[in-house]
Design a protein that fits this description.
Radius of gyration of chain A: 21 Å
Number of helices of chain B: 18
Strand content of chain A: under 5%
Structural class of chain B: mainly alpha
Largest interface: A-B, 54 and 47 residues
Structural class of chain A: mainly alpha
Number of strands of chain A: 0
Distance between the termini of chain B: 163 Å
Shape of chain A: elongated
Oligomer: heterodimer
Distance between the termini of chain A: 87 Å
Radius of gyration of chain B: 43 Å
Largest sheet of chain B: none
Largest sheet of chain A: none
Number of strands of chain B: 0
């Protein structure tokens, strides 16, 4: 009388049991490795480091399994791990706390009143998506986080709020601000480009 | 918004691991997994996650071998064990299955009160059969014997109870069932008596129970009387069964046994014909005769079907032969002939009797025998076989008494021809004739020859 929870653990990569924890783990790698890599790239703006974070994310997940836990939803679990690793990375880089980062970057969590400046649809209307993607790395960390999770990773506000452990309101405010910042940056860039072209023109 | 969202996602998806990077990371992770394998016990720790759900735990039962093993187990349980239990006796492991399960099912299947009475009768016979088997092997202890006696009593009481219930709704059925029960008691009583003489263990306690039941049945002041038609119908059923059984036992029985059974069947048929004739003048007598026929048929069936009964008692003990009229006349005639020889011998000794009073008694007896003989012959002429046999019985008894009264009288020796003394030695030793010498002393034929030689 054996349950599927009790399949004997076999040597990984050789003779894995179909449907066993090793098998499901490697399937999760095949499915989410690119998404995690993409997330890390846009958050860190460092491709080499993003590759390392993908590796670290999966080794941490494996360690979690070895501790006797089960991972029911690999997607949310892996995003949580990679998000924590990215925060760690920020801390190492800045040698300071996330709160300090937020304070340094002048991010004010604000309130819903922030949204009166136009809905997300209005903000993103006619926004150049390619340019917005290129400018994500220039956003403050907390805005980079929600923009990446929302538009690069395609997560909904609720999923994001659970992942970063904030309310959906906070997530929405951050997204709104992040998009306005992006639009401002895009507009600023376009303005600068026009200025340069004007200077070149006699 | 949708356009921005889909566009940004489309551009973002172009960012992905190169194949070589992906392969490298995968290999490193696999290597890590190999050097850090999962622990068996760790797999049982529950998950702590708000997003996860409990996984189903299911048991695999639908494998072929489990089905086959289950089927075999069920077959053994349902068919094998009850089958094996049928041969068990008290003290065996499966005996409780036999009495509790097998016989319980049979009791449940008995639909009518008549069938229930029949079944309880059969179960009583089985208990007695088990006791006899154990007794024949010397395994019938006092405790087991008491237990079986109790069981026999229980079944017999169940029969009585069933009969009482049956009488209220089906008096005819009750009477028929009672006949069957009585015949079963008679068979078992005969078999137990025989077993008690031959077995190393005593079945006395069971004999007591059976005899008590027989006495109870015999002391019934208002015995149930079946209807003639009911009896006839039941006899028709039972005799048909008896004929079928007789055909079946022909394969294993000896010629003598087959002839014996055929004879009893013939007797039963003849009795039925006689009873039918009797009904025209005496219905009560016909019913009584038919009841006997039913009982006899039941005994014959038991003899043919119960191997223990068959091996313990003779058929003649259970079902004596019923002679035909011809056989009865022949027997009467033979007895008359033998009686004539006997009385002639008495007449010879009568003349030698010295005591007058004794001689007068013998003469009177001879006259009575002659009168009885005349009565027998008259009854034979009138086809009154019962009357003839009755008178013959009286004459036979009287003739026997006369023979005893004159047996001490010595007849004169027969003259022995010269030269034949030696030659007649062998013949003399084979005759029971008593030679009386001149001295009056009784001598054997050998003594007489020796005396003559001197």
């Amino acid at each position: 009388m054996a349950t599927n929870k009790e399949q004997p653990a076999k040597k990984a990569g050789s003779g894995r049991e179909r449907g066993g924890p090793e098998d499901r783990f490697l399937k999760a790698f095949d499915e989410y490795a690119d998404a995690l890599f993409r997330h890390a790239v846009y958050r860190l703006s460092d491709r080499e480091r993003a590759v390392e974070l993908v590796h670290d994310t999966f080794t941490k997940a494996w360690g979690y399994l070895r501790d006797g836990h089960e991972i029911e939803s690999y997607k949310s679990f892996l995003y949580k791990v990679v998000n924590n690793l990215i925060i760690d990375e920020y801390r190492r880089r800045k040698e300071t706390s996330l709160d300090a980062i937020l304070a340094e970057e002048g991010v004010d969590e604000g309130a819903f009143s922030e949204l009166r400046g136009g809905s997300i649809e209005e903000v993103t209307f006619s926004m150049d998506a390619k340019k917005a993607l290129e400018l994500i790395g220039e956003l403050p960390v907390v805005y980079r986080e929600v923009i990446t999770l929302r538009y690069v990773d395609g997560l909904g506000p609720k999923e994001i709020s659970e992942l970063i452990e904030e309310t959906e309101n906070v997530v929405s405010v951050r997204l709104h601000r992040a998009l306005r910042l992006l639009r401002d940056r895009i507009e600023l860039g376009e303005e600068q480009a026009r200025t340069r072209r004007t200077k070149r023109t006699p | 918004m949708k356009s921005f969202e889909s566009d940004i996602k489309k551009y973002a998806e172009k960012t992905r691991l190169k194949a070589i990077e992906r392969e490298m990371v995968r290999d490193r992770i696999l290597s890590y997994m190999e050097y850090h394998p999962l622990k068996k016990e760790s797999l049982k720790v529950p998950v702590l996650s708000t997003l996860q759900a409990h996984e189903f735990t299911y048991i695999r039962f639908n494998t072929l071998w489990i089905k086959v093993a289950g089927g075999v187990f069920a077959l053994v349980l349902v068919v094998g064990v009850p089958f094996l239990a049928e041969r068990s006796v008290p003290g065996d492991v499966l005996y409780l299955v036999k009495t509790g399960f097998n016989e319980g099912i049979r009791t449940q299947l008995a639909s009518s009160p008549y069938e229930k009475v029949q079944l309880e009768t059969k179960l009583m016979e089985r208990r007695i059969s088990e006791a006899r088997l154990l007794a024949s092997e010397g395994k019938l202890t006092e405790a087991v014997g008491a237990q079986i006696a109790e069981d026999v009593k229980g079944h017999a009481e169940a029969v009585q109870s069933g009969l009482a219930e049956l009488r209220q709704n089906d008096a005819d059925g009750a009477a028929l069932a009672e006949i069957v029960f009585n015949s079963a008691l008679e068979v078992q009583s005969a078999v137990l008596d025989e077993s008690d003489n031959t077995s190393t263990s005593s079945v006395g306690s069971i004999i007591d129970v059976v005899n008590t039941m027989r006495d109870a049945v015999g002391s019934d002041v208002n015995p149930a009387t079946p209807s003639y038609e009911g009896l006839l119908a039941r006899i028709e059923i039972e005799t048909t069964r008896a004929y079928e059984l007789s055909e079946a036992v022909k394969k294993s029985a000896t010629l003598e046994e087959t002839a014996d059974i055929a004879r009893r069947l013939s007797d039963i048929d003849r009795s039925i014909v006689d009873a039918k004739k009797l009904k025209e003048t005496d219905e009560a007598g016909a019913i009584a005769q038919m009841s006997d026929v039913l009982g006899t048929t039941q005994k014959l069936i038991t003899f043919m079907t119960d191997i223990d009964v068959h091996q313990t008692v003779t058929l003649e003990t259970l079902v004596p032969v019923i002679r035909t009229p011809e056989e009865r006349i022949q027997a009467i005639t033979a007895t008359l002939d033998a009686m004539a020889t006997s009385t002639a011998e008495v007449e010879k000794r009568l003349v030698l009797l010295e005591e007058k009073s004794v001689a007068e008694k013998v003469q009177f007896g001879l006259d009575q025998v002659k009168k009885l003989r005349v009565s027998v012959e008259e009854a034979l002429t009138a086809q009154d076989l019962d009357g003839a046999e009755s008178k013959l019985g009286e004459a036979e008894a009287l003739a026997l008494d006369l023979a005893k009264m004159t047996q001490d009288v010595q007849l004169e020796p027969a003259p022995v021809p010269d030269g034949e003394n030696t030659a007649s030695t062998t013949a003399s030793t084979t005759t029971e004739e008593v030679i009386v010498p001149e001295t009056g002393a009784t001598t054997t034929p050998v003594d007489a020859v020796e005396s003559a030689a001197d």
